[in-house]
């Protein structure tokens, strides 16, 4: 995919004409690579995997100045983007402008015209997970599998764009699947089979959420754009203080919204209570720390703000149906 990175004055900071044939990605042979880049304007590290028309990638970036990235994707693929941390604004040539995807949001895109651009503001750390299907593979998977996928498959077959004007919330289950992909312990054919199943699961989770959001959208529309932005800001503040949670009163004050609007709006936007959302986040973080293998259960409980190891263990069992030690043995 040819890529050009420019600064605000349209000066070229980086250009690459590197591109690959569709046959490379459609091959049944599993391929994996790691890329490390470092320039004056930023740095990045990404892991990429592809096989049978499926491509997965994840990594991190640090951006030191505003970047304008222009690309041409000749491969005809539909991409799912999960912004774990950071923010990016996309423009699809002749189709849509200023599609913003922020921390903890995801979106799905198909651009038959190939040309697209991104704007990325300076930010010390971005964490990204991506999943793409070649168009033929996507149609094969999506056709006759529900109204959302059917509509997408029809548009892809007819070379019509697919996109959503706003990002959707990354759910705890999506985070868990992404974590399982990043920490996959299988090798060879089993790894390929595992990643294929997780790719399809992520697609199903994404489409399920789009369908649910579509059904409840009239209620959510009652929230003003200003209040919605404040609720997202409250969510970011909530997670930033996960170890020592803010009270609802303090959270509302810092986010610039009254407590009633915060509670009711949070439920509408995130389909969870404020502290229910925080609990899910902490417990998903706990599983990640357990996978890393360098923390004791006591360390995890302390790091995530639980009052005691017993409190942590009880919350963990309630969410996952197993104790921390039982889950750890299965990792």
The CATH class label of the largest domain is: Mainly Beta
> What is the CATH architecture annotation of the largest domain?
Sandwich
- The overall strand count is 13
What is the residue-mean pLDDT, rounded to a whole number? 88
Radius of gyration: 21 Å
Question: From the structure provided, what is the oligomeric state, counting identical versus distinct chains?
Answer: single chain
Write down the secondary-structure element order: EEHEEEEEEEEEEHHEHHHHHHHHH
**Classification by helices and strands:** alpha+beta
Query: Level of helix content?
Result: 40-55%
Task: Walk me through the structure.
- InterPro entries: Homeodomain-like_sf, HTH_AraC, HTH_AraC-typ_CS, PchR_regulatory_protein, Tscrpt_reg_AraC-type_HTH.
- This is AraC-type DNA-binding protein.
- It comes from Chitinophaga niabensis.
- The protein is α+β, with helices and mostly antiparallel strands and 331 residues long.
- It is 45% helix and 28% strand.
- The chain contains 12 helices and 13 strands.
- The protein has helices at 22-26, 135-142, 147-157, 172-182, 188-220, 225-240, 248-255, 259-270, 274-292, 297-303, 309-320, 324-329; strands at 3-6, 12-16, 31-39, 42-51, 54-63, 67-72, 77-85, 87-92, 96-102, 105-110, 115-120, 123-134, 168-169.
- The strands form 2 sheets. Strands 3-4-5-12-7-10-13 form a 7-stranded antiparallel sheet. The chain has a 6-stranded antiparallel sheet with strand order 2-1-6-11-8-9, with no helix packed on it.
- A hairpin with a 3-residue loop joins strand 8 and strand 9.
- It is globular.
